[in-house]
Design brief:
elongated, Thiol Ester Dehydrase, Chain A, single chain, 19% helix, 154 residues, alpha+beta
């Protein structure tokens, strides 16, 4: 098997960024469900984490660049500070869903991102997540203007 250049295979694997934010398609697999065949509650959080991670990646904010300090001036990481989740409708095995991630709102040290999961145009889950930038020792850092510029529409 021949290797494919990084970033050139499966261009939609990370979803797509548009004016309103990011959309990541997901499918409900057996592993995502509980004994009743309904989507397990923590699965929605995993999908939203993937949506945020891919959104950041497509905006140029790679986790390895945070970790090596090249984006912020010192090694750092985003951490979830607060979640507000609303489970609206249950997803079931084989459902095709979309995870929508909006551009965030900022304070000096936090970014708050709104996300929702949609099935056929109907919202099944909503999440508001507040993240902070931490040094590797756990100290809260201010969001550098260059980082905020990457995380906004421009």
């Amino acid at each position: 098997m021949t290797g494919v250049a990084r970033g050139s295979a499966w261009p939609d694997l990370s979803g797509r960024v548009g004016e309103a934010g990011h959309v990541l398609p997901v499918r409900v697999y057996f592993e995502d469900t509980d004994f009743s065949g309904s989507c397990y509650h923590a699965t929605y959080l995993r999908w939203c984490e993937r949506g945020r991670s891919d959104f950041l990646r497509l905006l140029g904010v790679h986790h390895n660049k945070l970790a090596d300090g090249s984006l912020t001036g010192e090694p750092s990481v985003f951490a979830v500070r607060r979640l507000k989740a609303e489970f609206l409708r249950g997803a079931r095995i084989d459902d095709e869903l979309e995870v929508h991630t909006a551009y965030g709102t900022f304070t000096k040290a936090t970014i708050t991102i709104a996300q929702h999961v949609v099935r056929g145009g109907e919202r099944v889950f909503e999440l508001e997540v507040q993240c902070v930038l931490l040094s590797m020792s756990g100290r809260v850092l201010r969001l550098p203007p260059a980082l905020v510029a990457l995380l906004t529409r421009g």
